[in-house]
Amino acid sequence: MNMIDSHQLIINLSIIFSQPTGISNYAKNLFPYLKSLNPTLLTAEKYPNYNCYSVPNNLTPADGTKGHLNRLLWTQFQLPKIYQKLKSQLLFSPIPEAPLYTNCRFIVMSHDMIPLRFPKRFSPLTPYHLYYVPQVLNQAQHIICNSHATAKDL
User: Fold this and answer.
1) Could you tell me the CATH superfamily of domain 9-153?
2) Is-above-0.90 flag for pTM?
3) Which of 7, 36, 125, 134 is most buried when burial is the number of CB atoms within 10 A of its CB?
4) Contact 20, 6 (CB under 8 A)
5) Over the stretch 63-92, which tens digit does the pLDDT of each residue have?
């Protein structure tokens, strides 16, 4: 028997779409290594041999700023409901996004701190990087970094 039963681990793959980014490629390549934990994938796509929970398909970078905003709203208001419905014990997010101020336990991946260290003055994502991401990192049970430099920046 696995240490983590069905639905206890959920993986947020809402960022994956048909024209992948570096982060969505990372996420697609990572979740097969977690298969032995029998995770439930939160995804708009179907993956054979995995438990999948359908999420809206308008949460990706393909939809630009609107997709980003949709994903943030979905993460804050819908994801905690899914977490409760599935009786999850842990959420893994391959990006630093997770429900804030909830009972959701989560682990996030931090790819780099460049937007925090060198914020762009007039970017619509500046508040996201300066306020939301630090809160997510502070509330995470664990943070996985893709490099020593990123870990050192934290």
Assistant:
1) Glycogen Phosphorylase B; (3.40.50.2000)
2) no
3) 7
4) no
5) 888 998 999 999 999 999 999 999 999 999
